[in-house]
């Protein structure tokens, strides 16, 4: 239990504490790591207890994880649609490759991250529950 406590002190320096720390760790991962449910199964035993020590409900931790994960889905080579999208781009620009596709989706990923993060900040500030009986704070 010593490791989550040490990490919780570092993450607790941010306000609101959970969202930006999770956005940064989830949004900056390389494309080769597991995605979605598989990654959540790996990181939830670490992040949920760590943020619970900071009085952040597990539901908020998962909501912020989903924000960070959804932003990187558009630009990952692990996407099922990546090759299909690359084929469509190469129809119009023969020299297009993986780097071209990634450079075109990066602004989309960053815009989604900014929009979802601002929406979460608004949700957090207004104190709107995440679900029945699940407070955001």
Descriptive overview:
The protein has one domain. It is 69% helix and 0% strand. The chain has helices at 2-11, 17-27, 36-52, 58-73, 82-92, 98-126. The longest helix is centred in the C-terminal third of the chain and has 29 residues, at 98-126. Pfam families: ABG_transport. Keywords: Membrane, Transmembrane, Transmembrane helix.
Keywords summarizing the entry:
transmembrane helix; 6 helices; mainly alpha; transmembrane; 137 residues; membrane; AbgT transporter; secondary active p-aminobenzoyl-glutamate transmembrane transporter activity; 69% helix
Spell out the blueprint of helices and strands.
Elements: H1 2-11, H2 17-27, H3 36-52, H4 58-73, H5 82-92, H6 98-126
Helix pairs in contact: 1-3, 2-4, 2-6, 3-4, 4-6
Pfam family, one: ABG_transport
Keywords: Membrane, Transmembrane, Transmembrane helix
Protein name: AbgT transporter
């Amino acid at each position: 239990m010593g490791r989550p406590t040490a990490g919780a002190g570092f993450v607790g320096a941010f306000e609101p504490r959970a969202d930006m720390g999770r956005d940064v760790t989830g949004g900056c991962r390389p494309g080769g790591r597991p995605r979605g449910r598989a990654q959540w199964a790996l990181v939830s035993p670490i992040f949920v207890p760590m943020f619970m020590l900071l009085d952040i409900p597990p539901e908020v931790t998962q909501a912020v994880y989903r924000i960070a994960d959804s932003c990187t889905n558009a630009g990952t080579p692990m996407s099922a649609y990546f090759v299909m999208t690359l084929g469509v781009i190469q129809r119009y620009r023969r020299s297009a490759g993986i780097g071209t596709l990634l450079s075109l989706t990066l602004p989309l990923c960053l815009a989604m991250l900014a929009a979802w993060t601002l929406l979460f900040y608004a949700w957090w500030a207004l104190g709107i529950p995440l679900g029945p009986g699940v407070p955001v704070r």
